[in-house]
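pinging the channel bc i need a second pair of eyes. not urgent but kinda urgent?? the chain im working w is below, pasted from the shared doc
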Amino acid sequence: MGCRAHIAVTYLFDPLCGWCYGASPAIQRLGRQSGIQLELVPTGLFAGSGGRTMDAAFADYAWSNDVRIEKLTGQRFTEDYRKNVLGKPGSRFDSATTTLALTAVSLSEPQRELETLKVLQEARYLQALDTSAVPVVEKLLRDTGLSVAADRLVTGDAELLAADAARIQNAQGLMQTLGAQGVPALVVKDDNGSRLLRGNALYDSFDSLLSQIVAA
């Protein structure tokens, strides 16, 4: 099923959101659709003050969620991730680094941002890497051939920090305006204006998702 008119779709997400990882196959596919211009806008949900320190209670809560996500979407969460990421009390659960990395990619090689999101998500949930840590994310960017973004992530220059803050502010403004309760969510902008598609649309069949996007 193709899309006739040109439609702008904004993806509201957080790189550490398990449900956003569950939506990854649909989002990756959406990014390849002709007639759809997909823009990634991180919300900062778990960044900085939205982050927290890992403890046993939060690890149990996260894992029970992850089991539900895997059952619903088929996206894998490995035992290594459970043991080495969730099972590390005192470590940070904070998406500030991955969000900043994605902004750095958006400034240097914007056509690779969607691919980078997938790399960062799989590094955490499949390879059990701590993507809250700058050195870990820096290496992932370099290994993916994104050395300019890696350099900027490490230096955290003023332009990058301002762009990152602006993206988060934009996302939070959209969520407030359209009444989005959480992520993932899509904002569809066409000739009729902007409307919100809630996250559950991303777990349905892809044809169903497309038909909801192109609906007049």
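so The first strand starts at residue 7 and ends at 13. and The CA atoms of residues 192 and 216 lie 7 Å apart. — does that match what u expected or am i reading it wrong
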